[in-house]
Write a structure and sequence with these properties.
mainly beta, Porin, 12-stranded antiparallel beta barrel, 13 strands, 62% strand
């Protein structure tokens, strides 16, 4: 029974990234710092999750950092490495690898997350764009996961150089062993800060809501 519970917990952890906001190909830039933190919850049930990451730019195309994920009764820390480049306004590609460890079990290895990020403009002004994130999760003691997001977004300028960007898309498993999920949300940009409101599982009785903020300095 303990092995079954542990496997289910790891599967839930591997799926947490799928409720995150979309990721883009580029890194934060040389000697710059990127930070992101979010709270995820399902109204009506006791199921809160947090995710926080800090990354430091090493050159113009790579970054390294730490992340922390917590949920009810569990916490995991990860070491991440990112690389990516925007080749033109029409296409950029990047990747990430993150081994994570159980903070409540002597820092035991728990899961490995790898990601492929692609994005680019659709319109010549760059306001209308597409984004694709592919996630491969390898879990200690449970099956691997392979999932994709596809998003369309449109950046709408507001006052004082700020903007609001709504996005909508689909989340699906490349194993094709579960229903396709719809995800949508928006982020509001103020200088080097973004404020996110996101969600998925809209057709379920308790949809997931994500509230987050990130910055690049």
């Amino acid at each position: 029974m303990k092995k079954i519970i542990a496997s289910l917990t790891l599967l839930m952890v591997s799926f947490v990234v799928y409720a995150q906001v979309p990721y883009f190909a580029g890194t934060v830039g040389n000697n710059n710092i990127y930070g992101y933190t979010s709270l995820k919850f399902r109204p009506g049930i006791n199921n809160q999750e947090t995710y926080t990451t800090f990354q430091y730019g090493i050159g113009n195309y790579t970054a390294a950092g730490l992340d922390l994920y917590t949920s009810n009764g569990s916490s995991y820390a990860g070491y991440l490495f990112r690389a990516g480049k925007k080749f033109s306004k029409w296409f950029g590609v990047g990747g990430q690898i993150t081994p994570s460890f159980d903070l409540s079990n002597n820092f035991k290895f728990s899961y490995l997350t790898t990601a492929l990020y692609m994005n680019g403009s659709i319109s010549s002004d760059g306001n209308f764009f597409w984004c694709s994130n592919t996630w491969w999760g390898v879990n200690d003691g449970s099956p691997f996961t392979l999932t994709n997001w596809e998003y369309l977004g449109y950046s709408i300028p507001t006052t004082k150089g700020q903007s609001i960007t709504p996005m909508v898309g689909a989340i699906h498993s490349w194993k094709f062993d579960q229903d396709v999920d719809i995800a949508a949300g928006f982020y509001y940009t103020i200088k080097n800060w973004n404020i996110y409101v996101w969600g998925n599982d809209f057709l379920k009785s308790h949809p997931r809501v994500v509230i987050g903020v990130d910055f690049a300095l």
